[in-house]
Amino acid sequence: MRLYDSATRQVEDFVPLTPGQVGIYVCGATVQSAPHIGHLRPAVCFDILRRWFSRTGYQVTLIRNVTDIDDKILAKSAEAGTQWWAHAAVMEREFSNAYNALGVLPPTYEPHATAHVPEMIALMQTLMDNEHAYTTGPGDVWFDVLSWPQYGELTRQKLDELEPEPLQPAPIAGGFDASDGGAGAFAGPQLAALKKSPYDFALWKAPKPGEPATASWDTPWGRGRPGWHLECTAMACKYLGPQFDIHGGGLDLRFPHHENEQAQARAAGAPFANHWVHTAWITQSGAKMSKSLGNGLLASTVLGQAPGFVVRYAIAGVQYRSMLEWTPDTLTDAANAAGRLTGFVTRATEFLSSVSSGGSAPASDGGFASASDGGLAPASDSGSALGAPTPDEISAAPLPPEFVAAMNDDLNTPEALAVIHAHLKTGNTALSQAEAAQAGAPKTADKATATTPETSLAPANAAKSSDLAQLTALVRAELLAVRAMLDVLGLDPLDPQWASATASADDTAAKALDKLVQTDLAARTAARAAKDWARADEIRGRLATAGITIEDSPTGPRYTLT
Asked: Rounded to whole angstroms, how far apart are CA atoms 465 and 472?
């Protein structure tokens, strides 16, 4: 496995600290408001990285924190007239719902800042003892940037190249406005003189007049609340130890957040992260998506436009270090590509189950047969060697070498998806031929050529019945490969995650559409039986114009939305 390290700025071999184990810390949500799609990209990308490590035999510990106290949470809760902790809890639920909708696995642990004040106090004490921190008054504790000569090593910046933020009038007499806690975040001429350097950043912040008493905690240096950077360093070291494998987050966190995290950790004697991995932004018209710029698409809005499966596909379709330009066509393109995958997986599974239940192929383990309710059930006895793959088979199946190479090449998901679609094409071709052999009828067009006129399907294209076993074996092999690869990306259409999401959706419109399309399919079947190919072509073409593709199978025609 090779990953780009943001600290060294090159793709390097990943070597874990402990063989067979990987510890990952990912900066999670600051739960001030509802998530937009830009917040979800890091969650999906690191979920894929986590799945890949697990699939290749690693035991993965993934920590994703929740920042549930900061200036913006206090401000927004005050505007809404709610308790800050209640506001944070509601917004956290919004993030959790969005993660779940996109199939993001729960982290191993999800620590909250407010639950780790003792660890933060211990870290500050160490920094004080090492003379890397100081106070400017009760509750105000700062990291002394000039005391740590290596400051800037993560982002390769030097202090004399940084521009300190200009002085601003203090919101209260003698108070700092270090709302982002970043290097150079300071305000108020009175306290500016007390700070050793304008680049020093807040470890602990005294409460401001009017803030709730519950939003501050006692420390040896006065009552206050944590700075943004302190909490992540404290929680990462608690759950992963003073040195761990990977620290990740969005590209915008590299400076000042991750630079400050690393500085305070190493100044306290912790080697901290061995590798830094950052995901690029989602952009609109070339600009980073953010609420402050007014171009943030809320996750709820995007998920109202397309299922989570499609949104996840759209995110996975771009390599994590490349900017993802979100356009009106993003979800449409993703839906079309994801639909082709879902169509093959569904159609091939149904075919293999029909072969298994019909006794047309040799028997072996792990098959599925058609249940009386139309679903899939384990085949009787030993099942069919050509029945649908089981979940255990999918999780253990050998992956195509090209897919493995793509994933090991800095998590190259676009190339991995290209490998999947290549296998999809082979599987669709074999499936069409196998269905024709099973039915003893002319071979029907596969999905890629589903608009082929009925008159072009001549009996000469029919596959011989004797080829059925070989073709069915190929269909099963391709289905197993496709599902195994999709499982790595969290995109297996038959995963319970997506099945439950579909089942819970409002399907009133789908039922109405189905009734209308089934009427046309019945008319087309009648036309084909009467060899009225012109009529059959007309029906197929009309449905295709409406974005409905017909696929013929031994059990009759089916349709998919394209």
From this structure: 11
